[in-house]
Amino acid sequence: MSLKDKLMTEGMKLAANPSVAKLMQDERFMRLLMTAMSVPGKVSSFTTEQKETFAKTMGLATTEELRDLKRTVAALEREVSRLRKAANEG
Q1: Which of 6, 29, 42, 89 is least surrounded by Cβ atoms within 10 Å, i.e. has the fewest?
Q2: Is the pLDDT at 1 greater than 80, yes or no?
Q3: What is the dihedral of CA 19, 25, 28, 30, to 10 degrees?
Q4: The pTM of the whole model exceeds 0.70
Q5: Considering only CA atoms, which of 52, 74, 78 is closest in space to residue 65?
Q6: For residue 33, which of 89, 48, 25 has the smallest C-alpha distance?
Q7: Distance between CA 25 and CA 18 in Å, rounded?
Q8: What is the Cα–Cα distance from 64 to 51, expressed in whole angstroms?
Q9: Could you give phi then psi for residue 2, rounded to 5 degrees?
Q10: Distance between CA atoms of residues 90 and 82, nearest Å
């Protein structure tokens, strides 16, 4: 049984519990639960923004900028190669 299957099974057992069902009907609890579930995404986006800000402040290139530069260099190298071939044939 995979972890996902195990979690689903345990979640279904928990949902069948009457005290949990009563708790799930409480609006305050549900709001708290939704807020708790959104925290990892907020932390992730915050840290990404902070890394980018730090990189810019320190004059460093980010991973995304390096990827774009590598792509541009590769395209320019292909163009130079094509132009050399054309010059040698002509």
Answers
A1: 89
A2: no
A3: 90
A4: no
A5: 52
A6: 25
A7: 11
A8: 12
A9: -75, 165
A10: 12
